[in-house]
Write a structure and sequence with these properties.
Length: 452
């Protein structure tokens, strides 16, 4: 049997003197020196790219908003890159990979000139792969990222403009990478399982602790449903809005303001469908001593109009951005449907919010476990919540109605008579108070379903 001489690991790792090539020409030494210099330059570039990634993505949104007010070159470059994060990331990744490839090629070029690792391949592997990788990871990745975490703004000031310039230079490759990642992202998103609102509500019920307050569950459910609620569902209808004509004299206006106690009042010209502005009562306070010569109409602020169909999560963002607290709700024909305030939106999450000036209004009374008397202007959502029934119980007949009175009108087609009873499914509605113009109060009875 043929035998082979043993080659222990120590022998394989040993680099014999013959590995180092002899009689290397001076021109090759010049090439080696230039390559080493280029490797250090490339390592510096890798370090900058790695530090840039951490530095940019460590900037808070508040800092970006502050930079928007700055006209300096670095601020404009930073805002652009932060508002195009995919472009920024693509630029950094492409730059990093190009430089890494350059380092590997140059290191292989140096090794081929100086060494012959055919005798000891493992030593060649250590020199060409392990050492080069260690240098790239330690000098080009780890140390720069640690520095960037603690000096993010200092780094951004130095590199924002160069990175933006590089992004323009590499724009064809950046464009291709952006588009390819967008396609992949869309495909992954489509395959993802979208939870329905009912599933999320059920998840809240089964994952909440047994002793968790019911109010906490209701708040979580309100947040889940928040983006699915339109302005029309929470607005104050026009019949309940206090508004004044632009021609109203100041004395009468102040008297009415004292009576109602609102801090913001819509002002119209001619009729309520022609809202021309909103009067902030705080703007009147500095002028109260100049009642005789005050043209209060000059204090009116421009109105902010929103359609009935707008979702309240979008409206909340617009309230925050525009720094307004009241919007005029208009219908599809441009007529005024009502108003909606910041408080109305917040009450959808946290429930009714009362301050020290709010009076306790009773919109309902509970007669027994299945009978209630409601004010006709109560919203259907509130009525369903108080009766602990599904909020879609009347979807088949409600039409455009948002209040209990509107629901009765949808069912009857006219103003019903006093004590008239209207039946629908397992509900009985009895008209308790009504006049020629509107329904005022309704008794609602829930008939228990017979178990067969």
């Amino acid at each position: 049997m043929e035998s082979y001489p043993p080659y222990p690991l120590s022998t394989l790792l040993y680099v014999p003197q013959s590995v180092l090539k002899q009689n290397i020409p001076p021109s090759d030494w010049v090439s080696v020196l230039i390559s080493i210099i280029l490797i250090f330059i490339f390592l510096a570039c890798v370090a900058v790219f790695s530090a840039s990634e951490n530095a940019f993505f460590s900037i808070s949104p508040a800092t970006v908003d502050e930079l928007r007010q700055d006209d300096s070159r670095f601020a404009k470059a930073t805002v652009f890159l932060m508002t195009h994060p995919k472009k920024l990331l693509a630029t950094l990744l492409i730059g990093t990979n190009f430089v890494n490839v350059g380092i590997v090629v140059l290191s292989s070029f140096i090794m081929n000139i100086l060494f012959d690792f055919s005798i000891s391949p493992i030593a060649g592997f250590i020199f060409q792969v392990v050492i080069v990788t260690f240098l790239i990871v330690m000098i080009g990745e780890v140390l720069p990222k640690i520095y960037a975490v603690h000096n993010s703004m200092k780094m951004v000031k130095l590199i924002a403009s160069p990175i933006l310039t590089l992004s323009k230079v590499l724009s064809p490759l950046v464009f291709i990478l952006e588009k390819s990642t967008s396609i992949i992202d869309k495909r992954i998103t489509k395959k993802g399982h979208m939870l329905s609102i009912d599933e999320l509500n059920h998840a809240i019920d089964i994952t909440s602790e047994e002793d968790a307050p019911e109010e906490e569950k209701e708040i979580l459910k309100s947040i889940v449903n928040f983006g699915n609620i339109s302005v029309k569902e929470i607005m104050r209808p026009r019949m309940d809005v206090v508004a004044y004509d632009k021609k109203t004299d100041l004395a009468s206006l102040i008297k009415e303001i004292n009576e109602w106690g609102y801090s913001r009042i819509p002002i119209f010209e001619g009729n309520f469908d022609r809202i021309v502005g909103v009067l902030y009562i705080k703007d009147l306070l500095p002028h109260l001593g100049k009642v005789n010569d005050l043209a209060w109409q000059k204090l009116i602020k421009p109105p902010y109009f929103v359609p009935e169909s707008k979702k309240i999560d979008d409206l909340l963002k617009e309230f925050q951005n525009k720094r307004v607290h009241l919007a005029i709700v208009v219908d599809e024909f441009g007529g005024t449907s009502g108003i909606v305030t910041m408080e109305d939106i917040l009450e959808e999450i946290f429930g009714e919010i009362k301050d020290e000036f709010d009076e306790d209004e009773l919109f309902y009374s509970k007669l027994d476990e299945s009978s209630y008397v409601f004010e006709a202007k109560i919203s259907l959502n509130d009525m369903c919540r108080l009766m602990e029934i599904e909020d879609n119980s009347f979807d088949d007949i409600r039409g455009d109605a948002d209040t209990l009175g509107g629901l009765i009108l949808e069912m009857t087609g006219k103003i019903p008579n006093l004590k008239q009873k209207i039946e629908y499914n397992h509900f009985i509605f009895t008209i308790e108070s009504v006049d020629k113009r509107k329904i005022k109060r309704v008794k609602v009875e829930l008939i228990p379903l017979l178990e067969g």
